[in-house]
Amino acid sequence: MNLAMDKAALEAFLARDFPQVGDDFVLEEVTPMVVRVRMPVAERHLRPGGTVSGPSMFALADVSIYLAILAMIGPKALAVTTNCSIDFMRKPAADRDLICDARLLKLGRVLAVGDAMIFSDGLEGAVARAGLTYSIPPT
Amino acid sequence: MNLAMDKAALEAFLARDFPQVGDDFVLEEVTPMVVRVRMPVAERHLRPGGTVSGPSMFALADVSIYLAILAMIGPKALAVTTNCSIDFMRKPAADRDLICDARLLKLGRVLAVGDAMIFSDGLEGAVARAGLTYSIPPT
Amino acid sequence: MNLAMDKAALEAFLARDFPQVGDDFVLEEVTPMVVRVRMPVAERHLRPGGTVSGPSMFALADVSIYLAILAMIGPKALAVTTNCSIDFMRKPAADRDLICDARLLKLGRVLAVGDAMIFSDGLEGAVARAGLTYSIPPT
Amino acid sequence: MNLAMDKAALEAFLARDFPQVGDDFVLEEVTPMVVRVRMPVAERHLRPGGTVSGPSMFALADVSIYLAILAMIGPKALAVTTNCSIDFMRKPAADRDLICDARLLKLGRVLAVGDAMIFSDGLEGAVARAGLTYSIPPT
Predict the structure, then answer these.
(1) Would the CA dihedral through B55, B58, B64, B67 be positive or negative?
(2) pLDDT tens digits, A62-106
(3) What is B7-135's CATH number?
(4) Which residues in chain A are contacts of B91 at CB distance < 8 A?
(5) What gap in Å lies between CA D79 and CA D82, rounded to an integer?
(6) Considering CB atoms only, which of A49, A56, A62 is closest to B78?
(7) Please, which pLDDT band fits residue B139 given cuts at 50, 70 and 90?
């Protein structure tokens, strides 16, 4: 399997098409079916008690799988999330970035399924795990 | 069943403890085990193609179930989301508020389970459906 | 919306195409987008402690949504489950049938989404809630 | 981390406490937080079109995580499944056993979370992926 978009192409796509969120996410690694994305944790992601909000972690998992799909099929198709099931397992550290390791488990003609494991950078034990399904519209 | 917190008490709690997100959500109705929450859709919630982002809908479902729990158990306990499974079914309208109808299906000693149905205000057909589980720490 | 298959047609389909499980399920009501299915609880569904097994409840939710889809689109298409998220909320009674109220929330061209609420017959409080997605192959 | 129950102890437990399903599952490997379970596919697991039923795969994921938990905490506690989200990704082969690789991602005081990847023995590409949460009652 080859990449349809490499790291630089994905970064350019993110900056251009997702200006609202592009700053929230840093693409660290892209290989076929697998990406690693960093989310620099900022004040706006925090919740009372000094932890990162659930929606922030959801957003990180969602964008990571999305980028993993685009890396394989290119920017033409507009994939949309149809399902996400996420388990929040540990309280993320407020003073560390989040790291998301995402991989595609299936890349079909109409559906793609991936899972995402989220960590507080440098700490053991995933803070969240998510499974996501994307619908891939016909070209 | 009686409410431990009514609408005014929940609004005050939201404004004080969740200043980051309090403006995003308007509590419309509170009855035992059931709440309705409005999310005024703003530029920051939108995505390319003129639709509301998945993380925004996740956040709406999450806060709605959270408020439904607090309404029943009061502000003392710090409930945390442990699981969310969300189906995105239709593209939300970019120019309409989102409305979330949330209800608790179980309110146990350690776990609460609720479901949330999200609509574009005034349009038929839910745009998303979510089931959430919260862990309720011992008092 | 009209039914493509009514109760009698669905029963005949179930008996012919699902002889392994047909005896497990009794179709009680069929209306557009909504079905009610009864599962007579038998020894083989039980678990230690006198409760109905999780896989039995999963099977009930799965077949109920499947029948709700077939009722609308007819027996031609071979719909397959792509995702199920199920919350087990209360211990089912071992000596009562299970009742599943299932409804379709979306019936699209390629995906159908439904939810199912499962009760012990005659008891209040759902024992389980499930959301399911089916993929509908092109005809 | 040490095992509270090894392979032989888990097999004896399964045979004694789950006689209804014990024959369906063969424990292949047990290490801390990780188990591998084989399900010999038989006529009763099949569906039209020569594939293994969804409830059979659900049952395999469920028992695998359950055994992974018991391996760590011993047979005293009666853990119960509270949530399962499962993605069915590929059609399992009808003439091959299913293999489930299950691991615990969190083993807390009241909740355990695990994920399970299910394969048709010898074939590439998981047929299903599941995330499960178990509630662990106080001892």
Answers:
(1) negative
(2) 999 999 999 999 986 688 999 999 999 999 998 999 999 999 999
(3) 3.10.129.10
(4) 80
(5) 9
(6) A49
(7) low
Q: Does the distance separating the beta carbons of D85 and C87 come in below 8 Å? A: no
φ, ψ of residue D15 to 5 degrees: the values are: -65, -35
Mean pLDDT of C106-125: 96
Mutant choice from D80, D81, D82 vs B, greatest count of B C-beta within 10 A: D82
Output DSSP code: residue C18. Answer: -
DSSP secondary structure of B65-118: HHHHHHHHH-SSS--EEEEEEEEE-SPPPTTS-EEEEEEEEEE-SSEEEEEEEE
D89 — contact with chain A (CB < 8 Å)?
yes
Residues of D in contact with B114 (CB under 8 A): none
* Neighbour-count burial of B19, counting CB atoms closer than 10 A to its CB (0-12 exposed, 13-18 middle, 19+ buried): exposed
Q: How far apart are CA B134 and CA A53, in angstroms?
A: 14
C81 touches chain A (CB under 8 A): no
Mean pLDDT estimate for chain C: 93
Query: Is there a contact between D116 and D132 (Cβ–Cβ < 8 Å)?
Result: yes
Q: Does A136 touch chain C (CB under 8 A)?
A: no
Closest to A116 measured CA to CA, from A57, A70, A74, A52:
A57
D-chain residues near A61 (CB < 8 A): none
Check CB contact of D137 with chain C, cutoff 8 Å.
no
Q: Of C17, C59, C88, which has the smallest distance from its Cβ to D55's Cβ?
A: C59
> Residue B106's beta-bridge partner residues?
B113
The model carries a pTM of 0.95
User: Residues of C with CB below 8 A from D58's CB?
Assistant: 54-55, 58-59, 84
* D55-106 pLDDT tens trace: 999 999 999 999 999 999 998 668 899 999 999 999 999 899 999 999 999 9
Work out the pLDDT band at C78, boundaries 50, 70, 90.
confident
Asked if the Cβ–Cβ distance from B82 to D111 is below 8 Å, we say: yes
pLDDT at C77: 62
Query: Is pLDDT of C86 > 70?
Result: yes
Q: Do C129 and B131 touch (CB under 8 A)?
A: yes
In tens, the pLDDT along D10-21 reads 999 988 887 777
Tokens of B54: 């998945």
Q: How many Å separate Cα C44 from the centre of its chain?
A: 18
